[in-house]
Amino acid sequence: MSGSFTAEPSGASTWPAPAKLNLMLRIVGRRPDGYHELQTVFQFIDRCDRLRFEVREDGLINRLAEVPGVAPEDDLTVRAALRLREATGCRLGANIRCEKQLPMGGGLGGGSSDAATTLVALNRLWATGLDEDALADLALPLGADVPVFVRGFAAWGEGVGERLVPVALPEPWYLVLSPPCSVSTRDVFMHPELTRDSAPATLADFVAGDVVNDCLSVVRREYAPVAAALDWLSGWGGGRLTGTGACVFAVFEDRADALRALEQCPPEMRPFVARGLNRSPLLAHMDTVS
Ligand SMILES: C[C@@](CO)(OP(=O)(O)O)[C@H](O)COP(=O)(O)OP(=O)(O)OC[C@H]1O[C@@H](n2ccc(N)nc2=O)[C@H](O)[C@@H]1O
Ligand SMILES: Nc1ncnc2c1ncn2[C@@H]1O[C@H](COP(=O)(O)OP(=O)(O)O)[C@@H](O)[C@H]1O
Fold first, then answer.
1. CA distance linking residue 140 with residue 103, whole number of Å
2. 185 in ligand 1 pocket by Cβ < 6 Å?
3. For labelling, which of 80, 225, 252, 256 has a CA lying 20 to 30 Å from the CA of 272?
């Protein structure tokens, strides 16, 4: 997959921003600032937004493609670029073109991944020389999910998802359904009936099959298209919610079985099949440009 993200003769280069799945998500408490303490397992999938960067000598950060509903100054790619420039004192700028493939508000972390890819790519293209820890520190204020995309390894996550321990997981095939609605992470975390006091679990519990997502019952109740997608997946071994949704997924050992289910899935659920990855396509791409 990384072969398609090569440097281009014009001096521009195209980089992948992969999606993630939360294979489980427990809410084990709440911090004084209102953020929720989580336990989650992140794995990447080989479905990506594509970001094209061109270095500018004049210091401007220019967004070249619209992201529907997102003003340039709110775009996480632009915010990430400005943050990196401010932190390093770099005087260069960039044209950034984001080709969205990942549904927004889907729980696939597309916006967070776009931000992480921008940090990693511009750190390289601007030669600003920050190490992985420094980039992860810059990443967190952009969103709780951004650090895992910067680090690029499937992980057990705690805190708001910033305390990350790499994990080696099976890399199955997933059938992912993207029901026709957008779920606001903020609204789910504000919901009065959200479970906020789950007993902490361990990685061993997850491996033994404890794959609860504490957002599920609230999201299922509030978003009928998500409930319909979960009901459809119940015929395929059961569905899980990623993050706060709206996307749901089922797990398959064999690609052929995932494709069979894909064929039968109603198109309005915008299904696709993707491979689970413990190492992000972003890291694979970095190997090709070093
Ligand atoms: C739930 C998760 C699980 O991976 O994923 P998504 O479903 O969004 O993809 C993440 O923790 C989401 O991370 P991210 O999407 O970066 O969230 P942020 O922009 O930081 O937060 C959006 C809002 O959600 C609430 N929020 C977020 C994370 C958290 N641990 N507790 C919270 O209460 C806060 O109100 C915050 O203002
Ligand atoms: N480049 C971007 N791509 C997607 N969303 C962005 C971007 N920049 C800012 N956002 C905002 O981030 C929100 C969350 O996006 P996303 O990461 O795709 O969903 P989720 O957090 O549910 O996985 C979007 O609804 C949008 O308002």
1. 22
2. yes
3. 80
Q: What fold, for 2-167+278-289?
A: Ribosomal Protein S5; domain 2 (3.30.230)
**Where along the chain do its domains lie?**
2-167+278-289, 173-274
CATH code of the region 173-274:
3.30.70.890
**What is the chain's pLDDT, residue by residue, as a tens digit (290 residues)?**
333 455 555 678 999 999 999 999 999 999 999 999 999 999 999 999 999 999 999 999 999 999 999 999 999 999 999 999 999 999 999 999 999 999 998 999 999 999 999 999 999 999 999 999 999 999 999 999 999 999 999 999 999 988 999 999 999 999 999 999 989 999 999 999 999 999 999 999 999 999 999 999 999 999 999 999 999 999 999 999 999 999 999 999 999 999 999 999 999 999 999 999 999 999 999 998 86
Kindly list the catalytic residues.
20, 145
3-state helix, strand, coil in the chain (%, to 5): 35, 30, 35
Annotated binding site for ATP: 103-113
Contact criterion met (CB below 8 Å) for 18 and 151: no
C-alpha of residue 107 to centroid of ligand 1, in Å: 9
Q: How far apart are CA 242 and CA 36, in angstroms?
A: 16
CA of 186 to the centre of ligand 1 (A): 7
Of all protein residues, the one whose alpha carbon is nearest to atom 11 of ligand 2 is 111
With a Cβ cut-off of 6 Å, ligand 2 is lined by: 67, 70, 74-77, 98, 104-112, 114, 185, 243
The pTM assigned to this predicted structure is: 0.95
**For ligand 1, atom 33: residue with the closest CA:** 35
